[in-house]
Amino acid sequence: xxxxxxxxxxxxxxxxxxxxSFTFEADASLVEIPFVSISSPVEATLHYExxxxxxxxxxxxxxxxxxxxxxxxxxxxxxxxxxxxxxxFVPDGEDGEDYSYSGGVIxxxxxxRDSVIFLMPARLVCGDSCAAPDYKED
Length: 138
Prior knowledge:
Distance between the termini: 53 Å
Radius of gyration: 19 Å
Helix content: 10-25%
Oligomer: single chain
Mean pLDDT: 89
Number of domains: 1
Strand content: 35-45%
């Protein structure tokens, strides 16, 4: 994944906010559900805003599909995952809480990997019959 934002260039062009849309192939190792894989490219739609201190806020959404065996009945199934993501990038940051960038260029690689992992469900189920049972009091 080599998706980058040149903050210096955007500042020079006075483009302090903008939209980024792209697709990428997620690493298969991001899926920890047995017998399941990512079956489509990840679609990213992101909005960036460069703040006065050159920190950058990223908001947007990712969408991808999972395909594999249902975690309950083992039938073949597929599920579309769509979710909101956000990140905060600081120049030469060292606090460990935020993403950092250097040289005026943000590399979205770590942010995108983390976002896919965050959106990943704990299991893949094939539908209502395999969803978690309703809790009923006696």
